[in-house]
Amino acid sequence: MSRVCELTGKKAMVGNNVSHAMNKTKRKFNINLLKKRFYIPEEDRWVTLKVSTSALKNINKLGISAVMKDAREKGFLNK
Predict the structure, then answer these.
(1) How do residues 12-34 score in pLDDT, each as one tens digit?
(2) All structural domains of the chain with their residue ranges
(3) Which of 70, 64, 68, 52 is nearest to 3 (CA)?
(4) If DSSP states are collapsed to H, E and C, what string results for the chain?
């Protein structure tokens, strides 16, 4: 199960841990994902999505229908 937001397409980034001596080792910056159920009144059904917290803020602001429509247009959501 990959750690990718189903609405925005966000995924982990790669960077470096840098010590005081400036030694660099690879590390991962994971995104903050939540598994969340949403009710879609137009389709009269519940859907479960893995969304990032930034996508959750967009859902609270714009509504689930608008965000899902935008994700379908960008090709992130194929449901």
Answers:
(1) 999 999 999 999 999 999 999 99
(2) 13-74
(3) 52
(4) CCCCCCCCCCCCEEEEEECCCCCEEEEEECCCEEEEEEEECCCCEEEEEEEEHHHHHHHHHHCHHHHHHHHHHHCCCCC
What distance lies between CA 65 and its chain's CA centroid? 16
Cβ(77)–Cβ(71) under 8 Å?
A: yes
The tokens describing 73, both together, are 């247009």
Tell me if the domain spanning 13-74 has CATH number 2.30.170.40.
yes
Give the per-residue pLDDT at 45.
94
Phi and psi, residue 34, nearest 5°: -130, 140
